[in-house]
Design brief:
Layout (H helix, E strand, L loop, with lengths): L1 H51 L26 H7 L6 E7 L4 H9 L4 H10 E7 L6 E3 L2 E3 L1 E2 L6 E2 H6 L8 E5 L5 E6 L4 H9 L5
Parallel strand pairs: 1-2
Antiparallel strand pairs: 1-7, 3-4, 5-6, 7-8
């Protein structure tokens, strides 16, 4: 009797140990499966993030004009151009006298000389000339050479002094007839309608 009880107790103890061993093995196998799933999910999210992120493309702006000084749509000439081309069509000259530091000169370039009506009227009736009053290179004008001289902010070309009559104000428009004789000087900024009215007032002169 006692021997049977001992055998039964040993059998029950072995069964308990077997069940405990099976539970431990199951828990150890499940853990890495969860870790693998998390890794796959992280990699998937990373790929989605990379696919939706776009590298911005830098914009490019190219602005050029005939003289290479100021690009605003006007077909500007230099005094060298004028000397080479002559004036077979007998047009007047519109000379825009400016400096690199003149703020209102830049505003007039952007707002007035870009106006289509101004451009059309100037093209039909004038030779437009851009002239930097502080240009250091000598300029030939009506058979005479004009040199740069120190003074003011950055010096001045003596042709600017002659064209403006010594009143160095910028911007200034100088109107010349077909033979390049001075008609008048018009200092200051002008809106498109103001400039058109002024240009039309020169008809017949």
């Amino acid at each position: 009797m006692h021997l049977q009880l001992v055998k039964s107790s040993i059998a029950i103890l072995c069964l308990i140990l077997c069940l405990a061993s099976c539970q431990e093995s199951t828990s150890n196998t499940a853990a890495p499966t969860q870790g693998t799933t998390a890794n796959k999910s992280t990699a998937s999210n990373s790929k989605r993030t990379q696919s939706t992120t776009k590298t911005p493309t830098p914009s490019k702006t190219t602005v050029t004009n005939k003289t290479g000084e100021i690009a605003n749509g006007m077909d500007w000439l230099s005094f060298d151009d004028v000397a080479k081309m002559g004036n077979k069509d007998g047009k007047k000259y519109l000379v825009d006298v400016y400096t690199s530091w003149c703020g209102w000169c830049k505003v007039m370039d952007r707002q007035t000389f870009t106006n289509p009506d101004v451009q059309s009227y100037v093209d039909q009736n004038f030779h437009p000339v851009k002239f930097d009053a502080e240009q250091k290179e000598p300029i030939g004008f009506k058979g005479k050479q004009y040199e740069w001289t120190p003074g003011g902010r950055k010096g001045v070309n003596k042709l600017a002094v002659e064209l403006l009559g010594g009143r160095m104000s910028y911007p200034s428009l100088v109107y010349l007839d077909a033979e390049m004789n001075k008609i008048r000087v018009s200092p200051g900024f002008k809106k498109p309608d103001q400039l058109l009215a002024e240009l039309k007032g020169l008809e017949g002169l």
